[in-house]
Amino acid sequence: MPTSQSRVLELLEAPPARTTGDYLDLLGDREQAGPPTGPAQRLMSMGLVSAVYERYWRPGLGRIAKGLTGPSMAGEIDLATDLLRLRPGQVVLDVACGTGRFTRAFGEAAGRTGLAVGLDGSRTMLARAVRAGGPESVAYLRADAVHLPLRPSTVDAVCCFAALHMFADPDAALDSFASVLKPGGRLALLTSARHTWQPLRGLDELTGLASGQRMFDRGEIGAKLRRRGFTEISERYSGVTQIVGATRISMRE
């Protein structure tokens, strides 16, 4: 077993159902961790989508959602790394990691003494992530992204880009993010953000309903994080997206 996988085992509340040799699997024969939320989520498990996800799918849909003024996918990675304030030796969790592009970048930032864990529920996405390679500090975990299987206060940073709005229970996910972070740990999110102008808000809502994606109000995520003991909250909006950074202070809401 690679050293990085051995280090992940030390973070888990319970042993994995199986170890494939490529990633640790806590879901076993289950197709996914929670209930499906709609077409957008189901597409993430398709082999065709995983094959084009990193080069075409994610950058293309991201550009539509972020508009012309939003960051590129490479820009998102830089923003996430900066928001997380990653340093060598830290442990970072990349929730809903997909094919691992962010995870690999986080592994580089954490260095040989650090650890970047890419967590996803899709076998096809994780298979692509493993084939893409990356630094020795990277490991992958198939597990529930809403109810994280890690022990409390075990990671220095949590990233969840382009996924929270597809979770069946995003509030439970935020609770879980807060739980696994060490005091002073950093959180970085990219999720949906409805327009403030009413005609566009209605269109945003219809789009969300058709795709099974939750459309958050601007400022809503920041307010949820404050109630969970986060501070140093920053919010950046582009199109129908928001990028939020925050620092975990207390273990109480």
From TrEMBL:
Residues 93-188 form the Methyltransferase type domain. Signal peptide: none annotated. Keywords: Methyltransferase, Transferase. Gene3D superfamilies: Vaccinia Virus protein VP39. Pfam families: Methyltransf_11 (PF08241). One of its GO terms (molecular function) is methyltransferase activity. It comes from the Bacteria. One of its GO terms (biological process) is methylation. This is SAM-dependent methyltransferase. It comes from Amycolatopsis magusensis.
